[in-house]
């Protein structure tokens, strides 16, 4: 095992073309978590490369040559012998024994129970995406719809992007989890229960309810999938959202721009840690802002007022101050006696989120 550690210790790390993310690593010990290909490895390497090479050890715990029992025997001694002050364990496995060191950096798909500061790394939001685009013009938004938030997609040829994501999920997920994710792409933004998914999947494969529930919860816990609660009804069926819109393009031929658009808006709210819920006829209700958000990419004012009329009881009861209609490119402020109504293009709305 010392041979493997020496090999990693001698490696010259490479992280060409790294672009700053909203999340960064400081001098404290951290546990970084996020889905596969969210940029955890690049973030770690960027930080390590700002330090003296002899001061850190980077170890990828997926290496099949790594024997955890042997590693636990020698790792602490190796770090002391070489005066290593920063230990980075990428793709950390929880059977690896941790020990006192100046700075510990862990990376995994899910939060780890340690004394380290937990840091969640999401996929790119629209503002980060523009930095990766290195330009901002009329094509940026349509490009965002094509690529989604996976950082590596900018470096992959257009004909290879779907296969890249498929390979990512085949590697990161087991067979049942992948089957659930594929089914979820066909049901995004809909009210979906575990039973709904079970009824669909049992037509394609032999699967037990218990197994499905366990794997579905794992996808939620690791944030491949999100479930949005109904306002004041936590036990009601949740609306289902994907962690990235590019997944729908990669795993299904089904097209539904409106659902993709709504999913995109939800992800911006998630990435900005905005508390939100759904209600009947309401895509997103933000109680802390007394605000309703409707995802309507293309709409005219006449039909929009019809939709607002159906929400008047909710607006009055909950003292909603503002209704925002996020569109593709329409912008307008509408006169309404009960609440301020604004139509805002997605690009403007996303960049204005706090």
- Could you list the spans in which at least 5 consecutive residues all have pLDDT below 50? none
Number of domains: 3
Q: What share of residues is helical? A: 25-40%
Order of helices and strands: HEHEHEEEHHHHHHEEHHEEEHHEEEH
Q: Report the span from N to C terminus.
A: 48 Å
The shape, in one word, is globular
What Rg do the Cα atoms give?
23 Å
Secondary-structure-derived class: alpha/beta
- What can be said about the biggest beta sheet? 6 strands, mixed
Kindly state the number of beta strands. Answer: 13
Annotated CATH homologous superfamily of the largest domain: Winged helix-like DNA-binding domain superfamily/Winged helix DNA-binding domain
The CATH topology of the largest domain comes to Arc Repressor Mutant, subunit A
Residue fraction in strands: 15-25%
Residue-averaged pLDDT: 93
Architecture (CATH level 2) name of the largest domain: Orthogonal Bundle
Would you mind describing this structure in some detail?
The protein is α/β, with parallel strands linked by helices and 354 residues long. It has three domains: 2-120, Rossmann fold (3-Layer(aba) Sandwich), CATH 3.40.50; 125-262, Orthogonal Bundle (Arc Repressor Mutant, subunit A), CATH 1.10.10; 274-354, no CATH class. Helix content is 38%, strand content 17%. It has helices at 2-10, 40-48, 68-81, 126-133, 140-147, 161-172, 175-185, 194-201, 209-221, 246-251, 257-271, 301-310, 312-317, 346-352, and strands at residues 30-33, 56-60, 86-90, 103-108, 117-120, 225-228, 239-242, 277-279, 282-286, 291-295, 322-327, 332-334, 340-345. Strands 8-9-10-11-13-12 form a six-stranded mixed beta sheet. A five-stranded parallel beta sheet has the order 2-3-4-1-5. A two-stranded antiparallel sheet has the order 6-7. It starts with a helix and ends with a helix. The mean pLDDT is 93.
């Amino acid at each position: 095992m010392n041979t493997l550690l020496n090999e990693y210790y001698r490696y010259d790390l490479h992280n060409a073309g790294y672009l700053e993310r909203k999340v960064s690593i400081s001098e404290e010990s951290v546990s970084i978590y996020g889905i596969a290909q969210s940029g955890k490895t690049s973030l770690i390497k960027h930080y390590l490369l700002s330090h003296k090479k002899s001061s850190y050890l980077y170890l990828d715990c997926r290496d099949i040559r790594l024997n955890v029992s042997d590693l636990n025997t020698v790792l602490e001694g190796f770090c002391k012998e070489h005066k290593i002050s920063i230990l980075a364990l990428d793709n950390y496995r929880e059977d690896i024994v941790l020990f006192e060191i100046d700075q510990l950096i862990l990376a995994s798909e899910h939060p780890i129970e340690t004394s380290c500061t937990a840091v969640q790394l999401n996929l790119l939001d629209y503002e980060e995406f523009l930095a990766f685009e290195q330009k901002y013009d009329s094509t940026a938004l349509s490009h965002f719809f094509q690529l989604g938030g996976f950082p590596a997609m900018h470096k992959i040829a257009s004909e290879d992007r779907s296969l890249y994501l498929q390979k990512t999920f085949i590697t990161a997920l087991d067979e049942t989890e992948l089957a659930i994710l594929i089914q979820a792409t066909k049901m995004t933004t809909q009210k979906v229960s575990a039973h709904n998914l079970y009824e669909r999947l049992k037509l394609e494969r032999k699967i037990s309810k218990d197994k499905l529930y366990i794997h579905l919860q794992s996808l939620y816990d690791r944030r491949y999938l999100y479930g949005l609660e109904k306002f004041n009804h936590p036990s009601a069926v949740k609306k289902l959202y994907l962690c990235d819109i590019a997944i729908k393009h990669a795993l299904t031929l089904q097209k539904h721009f409106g659902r993709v658009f709504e999913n995109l808006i939800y992800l911006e709210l998630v990435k900005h840690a905005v508390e939100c819920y759904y209600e009947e006829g309401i895509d997103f209700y933000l109680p802390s802002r007394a605000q309703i958000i409707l995802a309507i990419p293309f709409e005219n004012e006449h039909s929009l007022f019809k939709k607002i009329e159906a929400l008047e009881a909710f607006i009055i009861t909950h003292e909603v101050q503002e209704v925002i209609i996020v569109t593709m490119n329409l912008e307008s402020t509408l006169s309404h006696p009960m609440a301020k109504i604004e139509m805002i293009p997605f690009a403007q709305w996303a960049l204005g989120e706090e």
